Amino acid sequence: MNVNVISLLITLLASSIFALAALFIMMVALNGYSGSDANFAFIAYAALALAVILITSGLASFSTGGLVRRGYKVWFAVPIASIGFSFLAFVFIVIAAFLGGAVAEIVRVNF
Fold this sequence. Notes:
The protein is mainly α. The protein has three helices and no strands. The chain is elongated, with a radius of gyration of 17 Å.
């Protein structure tokens, strides 16, 4: 298997686990909202989290190829890119969860 694909899969798996954990935390946080208000929050979160997962996984794959072309060993390039972009995905997924909560509040107040 190509090293770019390995880095992509590792980052995709780690980011997906972060996104599911944030979804469960968001479900608890939106406990007091009505179902229609919370649905908008979950849709917004799902769209943002999916975009973050796909973009960071692609960037991890791309950067692994760049590190290997620069002369780094494969056993060093894959973990560096995967861990770095998984951390970046974690940060953006937390931001997406907060934005989802903000969407629920905006819908509750305005509609």
